[in-house]
Design a protein that fits this description.
single chain, alpha/beta, Rossmann fold, 6-stranded parallel sheet, 6 strands, 15% strand, globular, binds adenosine-5'-triphosphate, binds magnesium ion
């Protein structure tokens, strides 16, 4: 079972958006997928309540019970677990990072938000440096230079690496959760869904590789 967590030290960066999008991409690719929602706001769990499709499973849990919740997911046959954490400084991000094969850190691509990654870099160190990638989110679709500059800033200043896939600002990301969907379900050929599928491909290949290297 692979575990990917969404972590950040700031609210509204796209953690839940990416968690739901990746989980739906994984379920559509045939993986038994579960989301563990550690955020007391319960955004992912509320999304599940609005949803008409059973998969992915969504479980609301407390950070202090994460180990047991992961064991239950494994016993229940989960192949991929995606952990969504709270934006505020609490135990959920640290606990999730400690149990992850890959930590994804969504961030908006501006200097104010990128500066908050210093706290994430510290958190990752405390968690024992699990593999982590920053995911640039909310870029203008034609802003390739902004993406390159943001990547350099992230890598240069905090020693964090960016995922090769970034997400643009697209209405589908905001519209899909209203009906308990992910963008790729709202519009099969939409660009948001394609970005999420590419991020899923990168993530699953990454955790496969990391796991093989550690065997
Ligand atoms: N790429 C995007 N394009 C358009 N809207 C987006 C995009 N990414 C996120 N959003 C919207 O921004 C808002 C915040 O996103 P999201 O809930 O995923 O952030 P979060 O990091 O989980 O926040 P919190 O810390 O409060 O849990 C949501 O309304 C979401 O629909
Ligand atoms: Mg959230």
């Amino acid at each position: 079972m692979f575990t990917i967590s969404l972590v950040g030290q700031k609210g509204g960066t796209g953690k839940t958006t990416v968690a739901l999008g990746l989980a739906v991409a994984a379920a559509r690719a045939g993986l038994e997928t579960a989301i563990i929602d550690l955020d007391p706001q319960a955004t992912a769990t509320n999304w599940r309540d609005r949803r008409e499709v059973e998969s992915p499973a969504v479980v609301s849990a407390q950070a202090s019970r994460l180990k047991q919740t992961l064991e239950a997911a494994r016993a229940g046959g989960a192949q991929l677990v995606i952990i969504d954490t709270a934006g505020r400084n609490d135990d959920s991000a640290l606990n999730a990072a400690r149990h992850s094969d890959l930590v994804l850190v969504p961030t908006r691509a501006n200097v104010v938000e990128i500066e908050t990654l210093r706290a994430v870099a510290d958190l990752l160190r405390i968690a024992g440096n699990p593999p982590a990638r920053v995911v640039l989110n909310g870029l203008h679709p034609s802003a390739t230079r902004t993406a390159d500059e943001a990547r350099e800033m992230v890598q240069g200043v905090f020693g964090l690496e960016c995922a090769p896939v970034h997400l643009c600002h697209r209405q589908a990301y905001a519209d899909a959760p209203v009906t308990g969907q992910a963008p790729q379900e709202l519009d099969e050929d939409g660009k948001a869904g394609q970005e999420l599928d590419r991020l899923y491909q990168f993530s699953i290949e990454f955790v496969n590789k990391v796991t093989i290297e550690h065997v």
